[in-house]
Amino acid sequence: MESLEIQAKDFLVKWVTAHEHSSMVWQIKPLKRSVNFAIYRKKDVPAAENGGDSGAIGAENSRLNTNLSSSVNGSQTTLDTPPSTPLELPLRERLSLIWLKSMRMRLGLVTSVNNITERRGSIKLKSRLLTLNTSLTNPDLVLVKDYHKLVPGELVKGQIDTDQGGTFAFIVDNTFSKTIGKTVLFSSNVVANANAAASAADDQLPESKLYRFQSVNPVEVAEVADVAEADNLPTEQLRSILRPRSGDLMQGTLLKKRRKKLQGFTKRFFTLNFKHGTLSYFKLNDNKLRGQMPIVESIVSANEKTREIFIDSGMEVWTLKAPSKSDFQVWVEAFNLLKKRSMNSSRPDEGLGSDPAAQATALQSLRGLHLEFADILEDFSATDKDVLQSQLYSLLTRFSNILKIKGSDAASLFSDGEFYDAQDDLDDHGSGVVLVSDTTKKNTGDSDDEDVDTRLSSDLDSDYDDADRPEAAVPTTLKTSSGTGVVDLSPLPIDTPVNRPCDIPVFTHDPPSFLSFVRKNVGKDLSTLSMPVDMNEPITILQKYAEIMEYSEMIDNALQGTYPAESGEMILRIAAFSVTYLSAMRVKLRVGRKPFNPLLGETFELVREDKGFRYLCEKVNHKPPVFAVHVESPDWIFSFSPAPSQKFWGKTSEIYTAGTAKLTIRATQETFTWEQPTCVVKNIIAGEKYTEPCSPITVKSSSGYRAVVEFAKGGMFSGRSEDLEIKAFDSSKKQLSYTVVGKWTELMTLKTHTVEKEIWTAGALLPNFEKKFGFPEFTGTLNKITSIEQDKLPATDSRFRPDMKVYSNGEIENAESLKQQLEEGQRARRKAQEESGTPYVPRYFTHVGGSPDDPCSGHWEYIEGKDSYWERRRAQNWDESHRLW
Length: 885
Fold this sequence. Notes:
The chain folds into two domains: about 1-200 and about 250-350 and about 410-460, PH-domain like; about 475-875, Porin (Beta Barrel), CATH 2.40.160. With about 900 residues, the chain is an alpha+beta fold. The strands form seven sheets. A 16-stranded antiparallel beta sheet has the order 1-8-3-6-37-36-35-34-33-32-29-28-25-24-23-22. α2 packs across α10, α8 (about 355-380) runs antiparallel to α9 and α16 packs antiparallel against α17 (about 810-835).
């Protein structure tokens, strides 16, 4: 895939042309940070209606504009103006430029994504809503699909079938970001039919086409000259331009005007693709695409004296400067060649209009308007503003009426663009690059100091919102992304990067036979039994439940999007998150071990500054074992009170988890609830042991929506079943259009009518994971004490368990002895409480709802206020903590 770089407050347009009866397969993946993404189609305008052939109005339009230009060899054309009305040259230059610009502005033919031209110096763009979605109003562009915000790391695939062909604009929008540039991966491929599209999605541009500029030796220069001669290009002094003989590219360096004022020009590497008609540019020695222009569809103007080239696609404007006169000539002729080829391939047999009388009438009317406009310009400084406005409005109205009489529209005479210095008319057919005199620029007021790289980004003021820029905040508060308020998530935020190593020591001791242990306990709850320590893995159950948060970014991603109501995408993404914790047991060797069973009152905290959440889990009841989980981020709260149990049935063992997981969205107070599925451990007696879910998950929203996760059923000899499908339903139980399919061990893809989004992929495993308990990298970090936890944790934290610490170092016998001591101490504490009649009271959670005698009923709610865990942590008030070891 091609790497695209989109600067802050900027956007990038990737132009793709599809032929008739073709399918265009594309894919895009933002890296690290989100971008907005939309696809537009350029309206098809017949060549005869584009002022490019022998129609009378098109010819008159060409004559009205060629007064601005001089050819490469210096010849000068003149304005076809009646002798009775002589005009000075500067006035004629202003006349044609301002006349055409005002026509287009009034008729809405240059309104585009960047409306800075109309707003310059008067209106500041303050609203975040003024992005490409609301400001892209170019009448020549039709919205195909707005995908809104694409979340980082998700690969989005799509396909567009077109019978008529056309030019499509893939727009990657980063205008909402004030300071942060973005990088995305993108690829597109046009195939002849839809059947071939599926296999073409992963195709990439051959490396042989990815040419890079380098100094050209004499042999290469000769080859360049041969190709240039075949294409009628100048051949002298071509050492700064490379044109491979067998390729469709011409490439070299040009100076490009920077986006901001007073920054001048900078050197960039440009590639002109003759096959696709696009001009692309890169930083030197960098393969990230930074911009692209469709030359055939753009207005190209050139100033021979200053060696400047202006390219206006109607979406954005580039100001380029050739390093030498010979380079200037080569680039101009190359652009001309592209336009000639386009005109020849689309030229009709007859010119625009077939009624000579109508053409003559239109021509006469245009001449009259032309002269009236000249008079207005001469009296410009002395004319009252209201009178001037009235006069211009009258002219524009009459011009519009001429177009209606002609049976055309404004697009038949004028192309889009800021730099419409003249019609594309270096040859006899009106196609080519306009050569603008230096006088023109001076008289029109277009200054090099003006930022013309993009029309929207240059005037954004400091009030413009930026969702990607970290907010300046007090050390203990975070602002929600929705802007609804500030929440206290101490010790977050943490600006300093935290070193969090994930690796663990290699463990060579195999677990004892599980079968020999369970033979004596058929039908019993294995979670209540004390197992040999060498059957454990070096984490506790409290840490095991932290694995639920390994992919917490899926919740953040779900909240970032803007979804059609009928799609169900929001709840589908939440449902996909509810499944991801299962991937932690995708390595089958984990089935042979179990986590350490925490002591009553044992706790575990996890603060992930990179993921933006803080996690707390406490064991709140011993028999039956019940755990309370509370997780907070700036945008959501997750709570869960799991009560796991496991029973052995001979060849299989089933794992049940009572309790309801609850996710609350802060901004809307919408809640999502679900229960974890029953999982079964198979082949306990013989064969390869593995775990798979065997019951569906139903995620319910307080809005009435629900999603059902169905796990595929495997056959007797088919091995582990990993496939799943998620369907969404509205409040009336109607199935919605989007679905999620995939494997809980690898990948989940959200499917729409035309697009696939890879919304989840399994994370990395530890290196040499087969000898490290099959841990994912996330799990490998759970026992680490980083700078966040150093000297901050209570003594009850799982990281301080003496038996687990020595067990992690491979000291099996010592770990077994310490484990027995800890269990004996727990029995002694429980006996003392029973004798005193004082029930155990958890420190950081309280039982709410359900029966007081049934700790598995209701739910366990996190205690807020000064006695809360995080407030005690802030004050380092652990004096009353239970002593567990």
